[in-house]
Amino acid sequence: MPRILAIDYGLKRTGLAVTDPLQIIASPLDTVATHQLMDFLKSYMVQEEVESFVVGQPKQTDNTPSEIAPHVEGFVKRLKAQFPETPVHRVDERFTSIMAQQTLIAGGMKKKDRQDKSNIDKVSAAIILQSFMESRK
User: Fold this and answer.
1) Cβ contact 10:34 at 8 Å
2) Are 102 and 123 spatial neighbours (Cβ–Cβ below 8 Å)?
């Protein structure tokens, strides 16, 4: 069974998460410099079969698009152009960074490691992916 790949897009860094082949568990994959993201995805798609992408949709607490939303929309257009056969799903990503920080604390990660934003980005992507998976049930 192919994997589902989640993307927590950022201007500098992008967090990535994937399901296991049976699509039961969402796990952090990596954090990639955003300017290298498409190359990373092309390489990953050669190695692994991906059923669909899940991209975080950035919103303010009042449900309006956040400042980064136009950048994410541009990325989604490029993603669809690069991988036209792979569906792209959108998931509200409000509060995922806060949830990721709490997850790292609960997991016993040292403060120094929690301050590494790349850890938060990939855990945020896993939370986005888990949310998508739960919404499909």
Assistant:
1) yes
2) no
The confidence band for 39, taking pLDDT boundaries of 50, 70 and 90, is very high
First to last CA, the chain: 17
Structural domains in the chain, sorted by start: 3-135 (3.30.420.140)
Q: Which of 72, 68, 2, 4 is nearest to 37 (CA)?
A: 72
Amino acid at 128: I
- Residue 6 and residue 31 in contact, taking contact as beta carbons nearer than 8 Å: no
- β 3-8/13-19 pair status: antiparallel
- Note the pTM of the prediction, 2 decimals: 0.83
The DSSP bridge partners found for residue 65 are: 59
> Which backbone phi and psi does 8 adopt, to 5 degrees?
-105, 90
